[in-house]
TrEMBL record:
Keywords: Acyltransferase, Coiled coil, Transferase. Pfam families: Acyltransferase. GO terms for biological process: phosphatidic acid biosynthetic process. SUPFAM superfamilies: Glycerol-3-phosphate (1)-acyltransferase. It comes from Streptomyces inhibens. Residues 29-150 form the Phospholipid/glycerol acyltransferase domain. This is 1-acyl-sn-glycerol-3-phosphate acyltransferase. The keyword Ribonucleoprotein does not apply. Residues 216-244 form a coiled coil.
Length: 244
């Protein structure tokens, strides 16, 4: 099913790829990518000859009805792995465990260090837990990946994609074996994550923002609420002024 979905995506969108030679023909590797769109987890596997496994919410695999079964089949077909995210800490540990298991099988594991999609197309600070811990626990090389224009193919909240040609840049593998056994050191985890994010930034050309994307989303939501409240207040004032 992966090949049929991948073939359809390549035929429909014709994604361009640079650096495909940096993907090893065999053996474990971590693909660390920026995250612009829901479709990132489909375009990257579509252009690779090898299977790459990403983490996905368990709800995508357990929804009821015909739609739920079709969604589950689709996510399984493109190499998504369900993880229960009901608890923040538990979800993180489950994702790390799953990533280690994938790599121990000699496969490719895909991860988004930002932890969530960018709210505005900029690159945000990488979370130090998942990526660095998996890399140091397994010794697998980390390959930085930049998704280009995928947010234009499927903007957040949009179901029907636009026929825009996205791109993928794949960087050279990064070796962090010098830090193996040090996954309990938060400064090492931060250093590894920042090095990977710097490489992603160079590949993507995105503006870098040194806060977490989750915090940025909260700021955007708060600003939207404040603007709406201001608009309502001004409308009330105008209404009162007209009545006087």
């Amino acid at each position: 099913m992966k090949f049929s979905i991948g073939g359809s995506l390549k035929l429909a969108f014709r994604p361009w790829v640079e650096g495909i030679e940096n993907i090893p023909a065999e053996g474990p590797a971590i693909l660390a990518s920026n995250h612009l769109s829901f479709s990132d987890s489909f375009f990257l596997p579509a252009v690779l000859d090898r299977k790459v496994t990403f983490i996905a919410k368990a709800e995508y695999f357990t929804s009821p009805g015909v739609k739920g079964r079709l969604t589950a089949a689709f996510f399984k077909g493109v190499g998504q792995l369900p993880v229960d995210r009901s608890g923040a800490r538990g979800a993180g540990e489950a994702a790390i465990k799953s990533g280690i298991e994938v790599l121990e099988r000699g496969e490719l594991f895909g991860i988004y260090p930002e932890g969530t999609r960018s709210p505005d197309g900029r690159l945000y600070r990488g979370k130090p837990g998942g990526l660095a811990r998996v890399a140091l626990a397994t010794g697998a090389p980390v390959i930085p990946v930049a998704m280009i224009d995928t947010e234009k193919v499927q903007p957040p909240g949009k179901i029907v994609p636009k026929m825009i040609r996205p791109g993928i840049r794949i960087g050279k593998p990064l070796d962090f074996t010098r830090y193996q056994g040090m996954e309990g050191d938060r400064f090492i985890l931060r250093s590894v994550t920042d090095e990977v994010m710097y490489e992603i930034m160079k590949l993507s050309g995105q503006e870098y923002v040194d806060i977490y994307a989750t915090a940025a989303k909260r700021q955007i939501a708060d600003a939207a609420k404040a603007a709406e409240a201001k608009k309502k207040a001004e409308a009330e004032q105008a209404k009162k002024a007209a009545a006087e």
